[in-house]
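Weekly puzzle thread! Below is a chain. First person to post its structure in token form gets bragging rights.
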Amino acid sequence: MLNDIGVLNRHSVLANYPDVLFRDAEPKLDIATADLAVAAARKCLAKGDVAPESIGLVLGVTSAPGRLLPSLVCDVIARMPEIPRTVANLSIEYMGCSAMAKVVETARWYLSCNPEKRVLVCFTEAITPLSPVLPGFYSHFSEVSADERQSTVDAMHGFLFADAAVAMVFAAEGVGPTFGPVASLTNERAEDAELGTVPDGGSDIPVVHGRRLYTLSSQVTPRGSFYAKETVRMLLDDESCRLNDPGDASMLLMHTGSVRILDSLCAQFGVSPDSAPVASSYRVLREYGNTLGCSVPLMVAESTHRHAGQGIVVAFGLSFSCGAFTMTIPEGGWTP
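Winning reply:
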């Protein structure tokens, strides 16, 4: 499994993640989740030379917040006195890996009404503290019955997922890329909502004994591939999209579910896994692991020169939801 998931490096907000994972040690935070978000936000504002007072909307995006209340966005604003106290704010939480498409759509709506303002987005995931203790032995999905699969899910959780924070600033005008149109698809089949769950900790199951349960169906890969392919088809049908085929895209940024999922999508889209348009997807998986809602933003923020052209970004994940949108690089190219 370790050879097949395509992950070489990961980051954790914990100072003792190996001991937590293998020895059931008490988690020790190296940095709080909100502090990680604030560090990314301040770095972003400084890099873009963005005046904090120009921020009109702050979005806090996470499926693994440091605490349930206050929300991530409120914690970020509390820690950033340089941002106006009157700033509008919105939490985009528990949307899993598909959050980037929701962010692009929300920013487009806001900036169409407030073109003189800026939108600050803080993507933050701290999933490693939620990893269950690994069993001494586990079997692959194909080797066990449905009621025995949880040990495989636990092992996958321990080695695939990781923590990250990315911040972005969106504006109505500028020298960077433009985003949109956006196509979305959520729970095409009602039962897809149950493909992956974190069932405890909510009002239905308010008492949690031990670590939270994370469930995952073996159908995530085929259904995820379906959602990605169908949403991209919808995007290509949009009259404002200049592309006729995914293979025509200058870049194809796909959520880093796993190497198996990326390989499957490349096959469906008729793109070689070794080709330049998909290099960021494999590279982010390799260097950061699956960071849920941060994976696609990490690709967009990669310090690599993007040549002029129109690309496709696909963000999909549990709940089950998927979003695809275009990312158009201006003449002369762009480097984040």
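Puzzle host: Confirmed. Bonus trivia for everyone else. The beta strands are 55-64, 88-93, 118-125, 164-171, 178-186, 196-197, 215-216, 252-254, 309-317, 321-329.
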